[in-house]
Amino acid sequence: MVIVGMCVIGLFVMLGLTFVYMERKVSAFMQLRSGPNRVGPKGIFQAVADTIKLLLKEGITPQSADKFLFNLAPFIVIIVSMLTLAPIPFAKGLQMYDLNIGVFYISAVSSISVIGVLMAGWASNNKYSLLGAMRSGAQIVSYELSAGLSIVAIVALAGSMSLNDIVESQRTGWWIFKGHIPAIIAFVIFIIAGTAELNRAPFDMAEAESELTAGFHTEYTGMRFAMFFLAEYVNMFIVCAIGATLFLGGWMPFHVGNFEGFNHIMDYIPPVVWFIGKTFFLVFVIMWFRWTFPRMRIDQLLTLEWKYLMPISLVNMILVALIVIMGWHFK
Amino acid sequence: MRYLAMYIGTVLRAINSLLKGMKRTGYYFTHRKTNITQQYPDNRDTLKFGERFRGEVVMTHDENNEHRCTGCTACEIACPNGTIKILYKNVVDTETGKKKKAIDEFVYHLGMCTFCNLCILSCPTDAIIMSHDFEHSTTDRKSLTKILNKPGSKLMKGVE
Q1: Are residues A79 and A12 both part of a single domain?
Q2: Angle formed at CA A103 by CA A98 and CA A105, multiple of 5 degrees
C-alpha cells in the first residue's frame, strides 16, 4: 500500500514536470517561438527549476481568509486527482484497484474536485477568486453531463463498466473504429467536455487571466499554488487516460485486420508504452486546442453545452443503443 | 426540419472553422523553420533585422566624406522632443567666392529620442537614416549626445 502510494506521488511529480515542459515547448512551437532553452540541454530542466522556486517561496495566507478552508482546498483538489487515478489500467494487471464500476467511479469522484475549487474561491475572500470559482462550478457541473453521456455510449458498446473489461472488449479493434460514426461523435464530445472539465483554454473561464487575474487560485502562493497547478496537469493526464482507454483501446496494441506480420510487430511494443503513447497523443491534442482557440464567454460556454453538446450526445446515445441492439458494430 | 438543417449546418461550419485554426497551428508546430525568435546574445554577428528597424539616427557619408545635409532644419522642426539641434558656420564657396551658411555640427541627443522616425520622413534630401545599431547602453550620459556629421565633412555637390 505504501509502495503504491509512493509510486503515485512519484508519477504525479513526473507527470507534472513532463507536462509543464511539454506545454511550454508545444505552445512555443505553435507561436513561432523557441520555448525554454537555457536550463539544461533544450531547457529540459526548466520545469525542475520552476518547482524548486515554488518550493522555496513563502506560503502566504491572507489575513481575512477563512484559514481552515483556505489551507484545506488544495489538498482536496489533489486528493481527488489521486483517487481518480486508482482504477486506470496501465497495462494488463498493472492497475491499482480493479473496480467493476470503474468508469462510473471516475466520473463520480472527479466531480468532487469542483468542491475544492469552490472552497478555494470562497475561502480566499476575494472577488476574483469567488467569481472564478462560481464560473468553474457552473462549467464543471454542466460539462459533466455530456462527458458522462459520451462515456455511456462506450459502456453500452462494451457492455461493462469495468475498465479492464472495456479494454478487453477492444482486443479485435478500438471502439473508435468498431463503433461507426456514433463512437467518433462520442469521442469528439468527450474530448471537448474533458477540456472543459479541466478548466483549460478555450474553456478556462475559471482562470481567465485577462479578467480574473488567476481565478480561484489568485490568493495562493508557493507550494499550495503548485498543488493546484499539479492537480490541473494530473487531471489532464487522467482525462486523456480515460479517453485512451475507452476509445483508443487502452494498452491494447494497434492491430489491422489480418495483417499477421504487422500485428506481430505491434505486439512487441510493451502495453505500457502503448497506453502512455495514446495518452500523450490526447494530451497533445488538448494542448493543441489550448494554443489555437481563443477563450469563450461564459454565455457561449453554456450555449455550447446545453444547446449543442447535450442534445447531440443524447441523439448519439440513441444511435449507439440502436447499434448495440441490432448488433451492427464490428465484433 | 428547416431548423434541424440549420442546426446541423451551424455545427459543421463550426467544426470546419475550428479545424482551419488547428491546421495553421499544426503547420507551425511541424515546420520548425517558421520560428522567428533570434537567440540574441548568441548570434550577435548574424542578427537579422527588419528593413524598417529603428536603431538610431545617423547621417550618411560617402567615400569623399561628403554628406547630404543642407541644414534646412526641417528635422529640427519636426522633432517633437527637441532631440536635434543644428549649429551653423559660415563657409566661403570655392567657385563663386561668396559667403555661405553650412552646418557646423548636427547635434543629436540620443537620450531624448523616441525613435518616432519623423525627422527621417521630413528630410528633403535624405541626409539622415535610421541605422540598425541598437546597443545604446552606456555608463556616461555625455556619450548620448552625438554629433552626426563627421569632422571635416562637407556638403555633397548637387544636393542644394
Answers
A1: no
A2: 75
Q: How many domains does chain A have?
A: 2
pTM listed for this prediction: 0.80
Contact B24 A292 (CB under 8 A): yes
Cα–Cα distance between A160 and A181 in angstroms, integer?
A: 21
Q: Which tens digit of pLDDT belongs to each residue from A121-130? A: 888 888 888 8
Q: How high is the ipTM of this complex?
A: 0.70
A146 and A5 within one domain = no
- How many Å apart are CA A307 and CA B159, to the nearest integer? 72
Nearest chain B residue to A38 by CA: give it. B39
Q: Which of residues 9-48 of A touch B (CB under 8 A)?
A: 26, 29-34, 37
pLDDT tens-digit map of A209-252: 677 777 777 888 878 888 888 888 888 888 888 888 888 877 77
Amino acid at B133: D
Identify all chain A residues contacting B35, using CB atoms and an 8 Å cutoff: 29, 32-34
B56-155: CATH topology is: Alpha-Beta Plaits (3.30.70)
Domain range for A162: 68-326
**Statement to judge: residues A290 and A180 lie in one domain:** yes
Domain assignment present for residue A63? The answer is: no
> Contact B75/B119 with Cβ under 8 angstroms?
yes
